[in-house]
Amino acid sequence: MRSLMQKRFQKLFSLPEWVLVQKAQRGSKEAFGKLYELYVEKIYRYIFFRVNQDKHTAEDITEVVFIRAWEKLHMFRKGSFQAWLYTIARNAVIDHYRSDKPTAMLHENIAEETDHEEKVFLSIEVEKVMKSMQKLTEEQQEIITLKFINDMSNKEIAKILKKKEDAIRALQYRALQALREELS
Amino acid sequence: MKQEELIQSLQHLQAVKPSSSLHKRMKTVLMSLPEKKQGGYSFFFATRIGVMALLLLIVVGLGTAVAAQNSYPGNPFFPIKKAFIQAQIATTKNPSQKALLEKEIAEPTLSPMPTIVPKPTQKVEPSGVSHGSDSLEHKFKHVIHKTLQTFRHEERKNDEDQQSSEHDSGDHSEKKHDNLLPPFPTGVPPIFQLDDR
Q: In CATH terms, is domain A114-184 a member of 1.10.10.10?
């Protein structure tokens, strides 16, 4: 309750995102640090589920994403900063698979590698869901992560995946069906 | 598993977070990132400012228009209303329309007249005028006094001239000068009490 209040208070008195982006574009590392704090968890989670839930790889790629974002910040002109950041993350994941990871590794079950802390925290059922997610196609995993784990709107997802909203809705439905089948 | 339960289970996965070591590492990385040139205001920022200024201008303009619409003479917005109607008159070709617009300017000017102009029976003496009227009266008295003195002096001079010319020529019937002013009345009480202030 208290942390929720604190979050609301911080949100009320924090600078709007576009101001932070403007400041960061003008060279403010402090503003970029705040943007990092805003998005690091979401970006990490997205990458984590895209790299077969490999914690270390996810952290490495997250680092790369934010460095690239800093370097290319001047290229960001308009639209959603979040969508722009996700696009960088998406490309970073693609680059990661292109460079040193064989495609076969994608569906390798590496759930055992997840941290002990995480295992304790997540219930057995949730862990089952995590394992089943690995068996889905890349696109299905991506859509589930963006829509249901990272709580993004269809409009934003459409921007990131460069698809129409109707296509996103259909993809979402198929992904959920596939996951249910895996779980049953 | 039902769809709602499945979605709920997926939402539990929001608990997946990066380790604190990533934050530490990122802090160091951010500190060591190459500095960027501090640029001026970007085009995007300038556009936003421009749009905001335009919106403000529209709001102020609309406010002024509404205030001017209901204004009367003496109101600071009335000249705006008047200018607007005059512009309408200039652009209107139809004479009846023009007359209507002119009436629109004249009406608010004339309508408050009965309240501004006092009734004949009513005594209007604003408090601030009394001192002004006193000084005016004093000046008026002074001018009258001077004029009377000039007349007397002129008359005396005329009399003296007449006497000397009569004495020189001995002609009493013919007047050399015609007095423009009638003789100064004697025995008439003065209009004002003159003092030598």
A: yes
Report how far residue A96's alpha carbon sits from residue A1's, in angstroms, rounded to the nearest whole number. 40
**A-chain residues near B52 (CB < 8 A):** none
The Cα B39–Cα A27 span in angstroms is 8
User: For B80-105, what is each residue's pLDDT tens digit?
Assistant: 888 888 888 888 888 888 888 887 77
B19 with A115: Cβ contact below 8 A: yes
Is residue B136 a part of any domain in this protein?
no
Please tell me the total count of domains within chain B.
1
Q: Residues with Cβ < 8 Å from A126, sequence gap 6 or more? A: B9, B12, B13
> Does the complex come out with an ipTM higher than 0.85?
no
* B32 at interface of A, judged by CB pairs closer than 8 A: no
What's the predicted TM-score (pTM) here?
Answer: 0.53
Tell whether A40 is within 8 A of chain B (Cβ). Answer: yes
State in words which class domain A16-104 has: mainly alpha
Q: Give the residue numbers spanning the domain of B102.
A: 43-116
Residue B64 CB coordination number (10 Å): 12
Instruction: Provide the shortest C-alpha distance from residue A102 to chain B (in Å).
Output: 24
Domain ranges within chain A, ordered by starting residue: 16-104, 114-184
For residue range B6-52, list pLDDT tens digits in order: 888 888 888 888 988 888 888 888 888 777 665 555 566 677 889 99
